[in-house]
Amino acid sequence: MEDKYSSNVLSAGKLGMVEVPEAKLMRYIVLLVISKVFKALGIFESYDVLKYVHIVQFIFILKLGSAIILLFFQKPFSSGKVITKRQWIKLLKHAVFSCVISLLGFFGLTLCGPLRALLLFEHSDVVVIALLGVLFTNTGGGPSKTRGAAFFIIAVVCLLLFDNDDLMAKMAEHPEGHHDSHLTHFLYTSISFLGLADHKGGVVLLVASLCLKVAFHTASRKLSVELGGAKRLYALDNLVCAVVLLPWVVVLSATTESKVESWSSLVLPFGMIVLSVMILEFYVESVCSAKMEAPRCARYGAVALFLSGLLLANFWTHPLTDQLWSVGKPPQQLSTEHVLSGGVLVSALFFIMSSSILSSPSRKGQKGTLVGYSPEGTPLYNFMGDALQHTSQSLPRFIKDSLKQILEEYDSRQIFYFLCLNLAFTFVELFYGVWTNSLGLISDGFHMLFDCSALVLGLFAALMTRWKATRIFSYGYGRVEILSGFINGLFLMVIAFFVFMESITRLLDPPNINTDMLTPVSVGGLLVNLVGICAFSHAHSHGAKSCHAHGSHAHGSHAHGGHGHSHSSGSGMNANMRGVFLHVLADTLGSVGVIISTILIRQFGWLIADPICSLFISSLIFLSVIPLIKDACEVLLLRTPPEHEKELNAALEKIEKMDGVLSYRDAHFWRHSANTIAGTIHLQVMSDVVEQRIIQQVTPVLKDAGVNNLSVQVEKEAYFQHMSGLSTGFQEVLTMTQQMESMKCLNDGTCIM
Amino acid sequence: MSVLCVCVFQGTIHPFRKTHRSMVGKLVQEFRLVSSDRRSWRILVFGVLNLLCTGCLLMWCSSTNSMALTAYTYLTIFDLFRTHCRMFERLEVLSVFASTVLVQLGALFILKESVERFMEQPEVHTGRLLVGTFVALFFNLLTLLSVRNKPFSYVSEAASSSWLQEHVADLSRSVCGVVPGLSSILLPRMNPFVLINVCGALSLCITYTLIETNNYNAVDTASAVTIALMTFGTMYPMSVYSGKVLLQTTPSHVIGQLDKLLREVSTLDGVLEVRNEHFWTVGFGSLAGSAHVRIRRDANEQLVLAHVTNRLLPLVSTLTVQIFKDDWTRPLLTSVLAPPPSEGHAHFSDADPLTSTPSKQTPPPEFSFHTPGRNVAPVVFPAPSPHAHRPYAGLGLSYLGVPTAPRPGPGPGPGLGPRPHAHAHSFRTSSVNLGFGSNSQYRHYMP
Known about the structure:
A: mainly alpha, three-stranded mixed sheet, B: mainly alpha, disordered N terminus
């Protein structure tokens, strides 16, 4: 049913994998669900066991038990190829890694309880790989995958922030008390070093070890092929793990006293854990992934596991279950730990949704490009392009290249150095703010970061300006600079607006300001910004001067025409640099204002000085931005550049007086970028004139007026005759006629009757 | 015409444009014009209402101390930008770009504020929160649905869909998989403005319930971040689209068509190559362009020009084609024997002093092979139609083959016949008319 609505013919159902009907798979699904329920039981049980047994001993017993059973079933030594020495070494490494991962996993289990461990750690590889694909590559596979990834993150955040675990308080009481060994002690201290509570530390630890687990599984695929199957590898791995852990366990049991009274009472729980967690789940998973495709397997498994985990968490500490299990277990001491909370419920919901979304088959087919149509009329798509054209640059090389580009030219170099200075100041401020726990400093640091975004924009525009022209950007990227100047101007207007609003609310109700911290910060900011002003004022003065020159005595540049213009291309009319300069200027004004108001408040206690100062500053910023925005608007609106208007008029008059030229129409001249003025003009000439000669005469005249990208269309009477002959353009000629008429009426004021 | 000019002067609606010509007398005059037109009255009323509503909401924001409501209020301010009426084509693009960028900058500001709030979450009072949400939602939807804004609706349809739209489309597709009856409601593309308004209101409602029940004040900041991100997502494609128009780029959706036409042009008889082709959009939708066409030495320039223009004109409404030939100074037939007098090229870049004065002696190249010649003029003219005015009359042309039927309308009576003065008169334009954006120039883009 869903396929009916998918836009593409090639969606998963029709041309993808052939799906086996549901009925045949039913028993496997049931088997999978049962094994998952047992696994959840086993995890809950092992949490209880881990309260009394040391974690290393626990893992050793687990590995040993499963190794014995698997040796019995798989017979890894008597069947299959002989294992070489190199393979044994690889196996050893593999085993060490798997020991570390199960250590981390079970340690996380002790930290945040069985339900949370289940939710965080027991995701299948498919889900995690899809998640990482969405997070770190662009080709995630459509919006649904993105949504799944967002759900996953929300679920983890829910566990971190909104889960009020009761155990947290208890843990805080004896943070260093009951650690059994150096290992757990080390882990605890590393978590507390991160500044997290134990429970939250467990969440982070579990997420990290989940990623490790997936990476480990992916890496161990090659080894499993070498050894002849995943099952043989698993059996051998368990055995080697047990061997690796044996010396540690011996040392541990010799040095520390065990909390377990009788090992015999633990035989049953251990047997159950080994069977459910290690053996049953492994076999069922391998069977199911052989019969069904992996995504579906992951989907059903995750849903079953999480739901049974939720149910068990509700009933595990229930009195009824206590009676049931009291045979094999020491009596319960702590009945209210790691209970269900709203946060856990919500996050479990999100986890279930995200794993079902992420494990659903992706519709890669939607990315194909239409090539054409087959003789039958069905569309043909091309899927190769993506894979072939997708070449990614390595990150260090990219950084090196862009740095080189930045440092090549004056403008971008200035912006870059100033950006570095600004960022350094910001981070010093932020760190100092965190160190001294001063909120004012931190917020000022964020404000600086906010300002840095304007610098980044300017830097990016200065880089882009030098890109080569493409099919889409047919004149080149020079205009980006003007757009960036415009955006920076708007940015400053927004800032001025917010400062204005803030100062008005403060004017009505002046708050008490703590002036201790303000002075050094504002002096520092002032110094940084003064450096910036010094750096940028050079470029800016150039720009301003050239503008003035154009405005005041326009005929000055007329004398050396196009030549002079190409020289001033670097700094003249550079809207981008003007925007950046104004930004720095506004920041400087802000710092000065803060200093002045601080002095006034300290000396005279005028609390109202602060809002008045900011009111003044905001209006200054606003007024200073207006010329920039006006100029950028004129360029963006394709207006005739005002500084060339006189020359252009003169040039047009000159053209009209040329021999053979009857008239001109559609004369458009506009500034495209700092150093390009483009123009188009249609000339009507007498029929006995050579067109090329006219073009050759007209071009230098307009070039003298500053136009350096020109198209001249020379029309004779014959052209209009041909156009009317090609009567296909009837409508166009009609509109052209109307345009001409309206133009005549408006401009000459007379209609030719 | 009055409405067109009015909008530029409406101070409340466009605060920046006012500075261009802020003459009080003109403003008063324009205000009178506004009050005479019904449509602009409505817009004015909506603008004032919007201002009132925004002010009210801003006061509530400060009283509730809620960041999310502030973020939502900025969407209302955006509606204020939206309510302006028709303007000159290019100014429309600029206003769309400016308002989308302003809203995004506002969202950036909200993001910054919320980062600061995450560190020290102040208490949020929920008293006016829900009321403010519903007032803002109602008002936004009212403005959206009652004031039709042509440029904004055009951009929201033409720009690529935002991530919000994509997610909603994806969700609704799977919903339609379950309930097929909903397909007519859910499957068409959602209006992005309605979508963001509804989503913002929804997240505010969730905030309200969570704060009321569990006192999670951090939810307010989180939903402010969400609204800001949604604003980014909605506005970004539109600002990219209008920004590309402002950057004078070739719109990517016509590139295929253009390529096809240019291929056709380059296969025309006599055409050697097409280069320096620039195409861009002036307003939303109207394409302008210029191209240089190199042709064979013996081809008829006017014929090729007419053919090229004829091909491109349906797509590119404002077109300039520069024709050039190599070595045009050499006489055609003796080119092999006699050395050329000067190596002057047809390239416009070098100004040859030798050819700076026109030489009347050069024979006109009208005698080349494939041309019917200007005197033959194969005019296939439509029969004298009952139109109010003739299609080509205003051009001031003379057709030799034209049946001299009685001319209705303002035909150029004296302009008939090969009289160059008549042409000179009728083609003359005032030299004030420069550039696309200047005020007077725009008049002839309008019908």
